[in-house]
Amino acid sequence: MTESPPRAWAEIDLAALQHNLRIAREHSGKEVMAVIKGGAYGHGLLEVAKALDCEKLPFLGVANTGEARQLYDAGIQTTPYILGATLPAEREEIAARGWTPCLCSLEEMEHFDRLGQSKAVEAHLALDTGMGRGGFLPDQLGAALDKLKSCSGIKLTGVGSHLPVADEDPAFTRSQFELFDSLAESIPHDAKFHIHLGNSAGLLAYESRTTNLVRPGLLLYGISPIPEHQSLLQPVMTLKSRVSVINHLPKGHGVSYGRTLLTRDTKAAVLGLGYGDGYPRALSEKGAEVLINGTLCPLLGRVTMDQIIVDVTHLPHCQTGDEAILYGKDLLVSDLAEKAGTIAWEVLTQITPRVTRVYR
Description:
Elements: E1 8-12, H1 14-28, E2 31-35, H2 37-41, H3 45-52, E3 59-62, H4 65-73, E4 79-82, H5 88-97, E5 100-103, H6 106-115, E6 121-126, H7 141-149, E7 154-160, H8 170-185, E8 194-196, H9 200-205, E9 213-214, E10 237-249, E11 254-255, E12 260-261, E13 266-271, E14 289-292, E15 295-300, E16 308-311, E17 323-327, H10 333-340, H11 344-349, E18 356-359
Parallel strand pairs: 1-18, 2-3, 2-9, 3-4, 4-5, 5-6, 6-7, 7-8
Antiparallel strand pairs: 1-10, 10-13, 10-17, 11-12, 13-16, 14-15, 14-17, 15-16
Helix pairs in contact: 5-6
């Protein structure tokens, strides 16, 4: 029996991933921590990690120990970096397996110090320079450094902070870089010390006098948070479906839940994906389009769980089985996200497990 093809699938172009990594390196002139949290932004945690493992990166950025453990179990050699504060129950595994945490509180320091008495835990210090999500405030840095001097179980190997508005507020972001640089300059360190602030927008549009590491996420997957830099990048994911049936509907007929009424006789193609696959329901009646046979086709009515309907009246040769592109190189996920009133990060990470990932 022949296995049937998927109704919805995401083609992942690993060559595009490598291209975007080169852009991050060349544009920043710094080492790169590849951020692969959230299932590599929906692209597939392990496959993306395997593709990056040969790139001699210092770190792969993950959200928690569960993601780090998946890398460990798969034999990934690049060190996982735990982005954000750690829970007490996570820390023994982090210390035992040599993963790198970022220290956000004195309580974390004290716990990792106890865990690192036989072998020091290599850790970074997290500074809060405006994000408000964790780390030591500038006026707390001195106390944090004094505490670390007494922690024989911790080896401080880096310092970092995070940018909240690098793609929205250049004036604040420039002031944040200045603050972070001045704080980093006050921390004694050797040449192997990692200093990092720049996310995707940060590395594309700003300069730092101290940082030697950048942390791209969205950029790696080919989408620029700053539109004028999009031409540098190659989108990695192309989300596809196929036409399951074509209906000829008369003017005035209703379409989908809520009965959007047709204003003319319409040839309507049904595609086999919906919000159950991660295609945003918020795109309903927002002017979204899909590509079929190289032609843009408007979305009709509301997005449902498993299907959407598009207008193919202008496509005389459209037929059942034809491929449809929901987003990719010629239809950017960032443009789709704007129509949905959200961000590309959310759209990508909401692609569900029933969407087959196909790696090229």
